[in-house]
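$ fold --in a.seq
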Amino acid sequence: FGFDMALIQLGEQNRNRVSDYLSSSLALRLAIGVVSVAIVTVMPLTNPDARSLLVIMTVALSLENLSTGIRASASTVDRQRGAAVVIIVQRLVTAVVSISALLLGFGVIAMGVAYLVGTAIGVVSLLFVATRIGVAPHVRNIHRDSTIALCRKAVLPGMANIMNMPTARLDIVALERRGNQDAVGYFGAAFQLVQTSLFVSDSLIRAAVPALLYAKEPTRVGEIVRAALATNSVFYFPLAVALSVRGGDILALLFGSAFAEGGKAMPPLAIGLLAWITLSLLTTTLLTRHQSKDVAWCAALALVVKLIIVWPLVNTWGIVGAGVSFAIAFTVQAA
C-alpha cells in the first residue's frame, strides 16, 4: 500500500517522529487486516477446510504486513541488524516446522497454523527490536497529522505497487484465457522459480536504503547504485545463464519431470529477471530521493505496454510469448 516507503521518506525528514509514523502505519495495516479477514470469513466457500486455511493465511499475511512496517522503521534509523536476525530465524524455523507438519501427515491446515505462529512470533520479536532501537510503536503515538502525512505520502508508491502487480502477473491471466491449464502450470512454476531468487536483490536493496536515504550528493547516490548493481550481477548473471541454458532441467528437478516443459519460457524470463532486479534498485533509489511521481508514471507506462503486448504474444507463442511480454514490460519500466 506504499506505507513502507512513505514511512521512510517522512522519517528521513524528521527522525524524531519515526515512532509516530510507525504507529500510524501499523494502525492502518491492522485496520486493513481486520477488513481482509472479515471478507474471507464470509466468502461463499463450500469446503470448510478451504475456508479455514484461507482465514489462517490471511491472518498470517496481515501479520507479515506488520513486520514489513517495523523493518521499514529500522531501515529509516539505520538499525537493521536486529530486525534482520529476527527475520532469518523466523523464516528458517517456520519453514522447518511447516514442512515437518506436512511430511508427518498433519495436512495443509497444520502447515498454515505453523506459518501463522511463526509469523506472530516474528512480529512480537520485531516489536521488541523496535523498542530497543527507540522507535517502539504505541497507541499514544498515533496522531492525526502523522497519519494524514503518511497516507498522502503513500498514495503514489502505493499506486505504483498496485500497477506493478498486473504487470508481473498478466501473463498467467492471458495463458488462462487460452484454456490450457498445463501451460498455466508450466509457466507458473517457471515464474515462481524466477521470483524466488529475488530474495538476494531484496536483501541488498534493503541494506542500501539507509545509505541512499542519507546520501547528500548525487554523485554518492550514483556510487551506491553502481556498487549495488555490480554486487547483484555477481549472483544474477550466472543465474540468468543457468536458467536460460538448463531451465527445463532445473524445473524438472524441483517440481517434477512434467514441468521441464516450462524451460521454454526460461530464456525470456531470465532476461526479465535482470530487468526486474535493476528496476527494483532504481525504483528504491528514486523513492528515497522523493521522486514518487516518476516511479508512478514509469509503472503506468509499463502496465500500458503490458496490456498492449501480452495478448498477441501469448496467443501466438504460448508460454514463450508470456515470458517475452514479461521481459519487455520490465525492461521498458527499468529503462
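$ fold --in b.seq
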Amino acid sequence: PQIEADEFAEALFEIPIELPTLIIELLVGFNQSAQVSFNLEAFDYSMSGTSIVFGGLEGNFKANSDLSAEFDLAVGRLQIIEPKTSSGFTLEGLNLSTTTEQINNLLSPSHTVMTIPSMNSSGPFPFTLGGISSASTLQPSSAGPDHIDISQQFAIANIESDIPLASVSWLTEINELNGLLIRRYYELLAGLQSQMSANGGTFDVQVNQLAQELGIILIQNSLNFNNFLAANAFDGEHQLDVKIDWKGLPDLTDLALVNMDEATRALSVSMDISLDLNAIMRSPAGELVKPYIQQGFLVVDSDRVLLNALLEDGELIINGEAQALDQFF
C-alpha cells in the first residue's frame, strides 16, 4: 500500500502550513519481514517576512523475521530567517542510522550513529558548530551472560561563538553493567509513576522495597565507568580522563550493613588531568589554580598543568605522594 495525501501530512506534523506530499510505503515480505519507507519533499514557506526553506527528509525502517531491525533517516537542509529580529538558524542536514539485533529487547546489542555537518544561528546568540557527531553502542559484556557494556561518544569539531570554546569531544563507557539492574530500574520508574497517579505523590511499601533491591543489586555487582573529555578552550588543549572500577560487595544483603572500609577497598578510581598552562592563566580559573600548584595537588611540567590521582585498596595517591583520606571527608 502507498499513502499520498497532503491532509495526512498536515495532521501528522501538526504544522499550520500547507506541506508538500508525504509518501509512506509499507512492504511486508513472505519471510515475515516488514519495511516502512517515508519521504517528505522539500518546500519553501514565507509569511510576514519569516521564511522557512526545508530540503525534505526520507527514512526507512526495516524489521527482519529474526526480530533484528534497522532504521535510517536523512534530513535535508533547514533554514529559518526572521528579518524583524535579525535572527536566523541553519541546519545543514542530519543523518541518523541505528541497528538492533532484537527489537523487542531493550538490552540487545545495538549501534546508533548521528552526524550533522554544521549548524549556525545569527541571533540572538550567534554561533556556528561544525562536525557534530554522536555514536552509542550496546554489546554483551565479558563479565557474564546477563551483563552489558555501553559506550557513548559525542563531538563538535569546530565551535565559533562568544564563549572561548573551540572544540569538544566526550567518550563515556559503562562496562559490566548487570541487566537485572536496568530491568529493576524501569520497574521502579513504572511503580513511582503509578503510585504518584494513584496516591498523590505517596509511595507504598512495594515501591520502597524495589528501591532497596535496586541499591543492593548496584552494590553487590561489579561496575566499570570510564570518562574521557577533551576540549580546546582559551586557545589551549585540555584533557580529563577518569576511570572508576567498582568490584562489588557480593555478600551484602542489607544496605544498612554497608561497611565503609570494605566499600573503599572495593573501589578503585584513577583521574588524570592535563591542562594547557598558558590557556588556564588566560581564563578566569587562573587565580584558582595557583594555590593548588603551591600545595602540590597540581604539577606544572612543560607548560602543562597536571594532576594524577589514584584511589586503590583504600589508599589515595596524588602525583606520587600518599595522602590521608580523612582530610577529604
